[in-house]
Amino acid sequence: MIPDQEGPATPSAADKFDDEHYPAYTMGRAADMLGATQGFLRSLGEAGLITPQRSVGGHRRYSRHQLRLAARARELVDQGTPVDAACRIVTLEDQLHEAQEHNRSLRDAEGSTADRGE
What we know:
The structure is a single chain. This protein has helices at residues 13-18, 27-34, 38-46, 64-78, 83-115; strands spanning 25-26, 53-54, 60-62. The protein is mostly helical. It has a three-stranded antiparallel beta sheet with strand order 1-3-2.
């Protein structure tokens, strides 16, 4: 008898649709979606804002989360902010958002613990 494995070895196709960090977009498609050039995406990588994953063939692949960061950087650059400064601003905004989400989840967990009388 073969023992059951715990959890899937790889995410299913349906899981990938909901995963905002799944690298689903090629560089060309990402640039089209942003209305930017591929060079702009490369510059964001050089500035450290986004680090695309690589396909087996070595092509850059971007996630929805990375594209949201890139879109925000593009807004700032279009307003006259230098690329390096825009990347730093977007990084700080993203860190702040993550910290706020973490704090919210801690408050929610604390509230549910209080509701149980613990």
